[in-house]
Design goal:
With 248 residues, the protein is mostly beta strands. It is 10% helix and 60% strand. It is built from 3 helices and 12 strands.
Length: 248
């Protein structure tokens, strides 16, 4: 029994002696996507285009040893999804092209387990809060005398500029965050340059809108079969760079 107690005490003392607090900041440039099967299945009427965003924020961590630690981030994040498509005119086979985009401003809070210190792998949950959402749509031609035909209904071409659509999204999402990278010493193992890659996927349905600006409850242009597949899951990832201070 005494041996077991001594082993436990030794393990606790060793953990405390290796413990190290970290503070810092970072910036990431990401490829961003609002994953929505209804959009993916629309064909010429709606498709996604390459989109990019970024986040910046604060880092706070605690290493129990050189092999394991925990970290929490508070990030101000931008997610953009661009769209392109075309709506057929009623009276002929020509199509009116459009481009659109949805921009989300969010606060992201990942809580990560860190495996390794100088080189590391990280994994954990992420909590996302939507602060602002806007939508923009621009058609090649706007003419009140020309109507379109979309989902077996007449469609009136209109442009939209930075329309607030936060109410169309769920306010909070939960997902998973995963990454890897390395810390390079700048000042005697105290101040380090962090370089890594990180990927984030929000697992819960965030509701939202499609490329034409409609939510899943739109009675005219969203069919019952499309409504079943209408789920929005933000996905974003890319390179990140930061400075981290390791307290002695």
């Amino acid at each position: 029994m005494k041996k077991i107690v001594l082993i436990i005490v030794f393990a606790v003392v060793s953990t405390i002696s290796f413990a190290q607090l970290t503070l810092g900041g970072h910036f990431a440039y990401n490829s961003t996507w609002l994953m929505n099967k209804q959009v993916f299945d629309e064909g010429a009427e709606m498709d996604i285009a390459a989109s990019f965003g970024n986040y910046y924020g604060l880092i706070a961590g605690y290493y129990f040893s050189d092999a394991f630690g925990v970290e929490i981030n508070f990030n101000s994040n931008k997610i953009e999804q661009k769209y392109s498509g075309s709506i057929k005119y009623v009276l002929n086979d020509e199509r009116n092209n459009y481009s659109a985009s949805t921009v989300l401003k969010t606060t992201d809070i990942p809580i990560l387990m860190k495996f390794g210190k100088n080189s590391y792998f990280e994994l954990g949950p992420i909590f996302q809060l939507i602060n602002k959402a806007t939508y923009t749509r621009t058609f090649d031609e706007i003419n009140a005398l020309k109507l379109g035909w979309y989902n077996d209904r007449l469609y009136s071409y209109t442009n939209v500029l930075n329309e607030g659509v936060k109410a169309e999204f769920n306010g909070m999402g939960i997902g998973v965050c995963m990454g890897f990278g390395a810390n390079f010493s700048l000042i005697e193992d105290v101040l380090k340059l962090n370089f890594g890659m990180r990927f984030n996927y929000i697992l819960t349905d965030m509701g939202g809108i499609n490329g034409l600006g409609y939510n899943k409850e739109e009675p005219n242009y969203i069919t019952d079969s499309e409504r079943v597949n209408f789920k929005t899951n933000p996905l974003y990832g890319g390179l990140k760079l930061g400075l981290v201070y390791f307290f002695e």
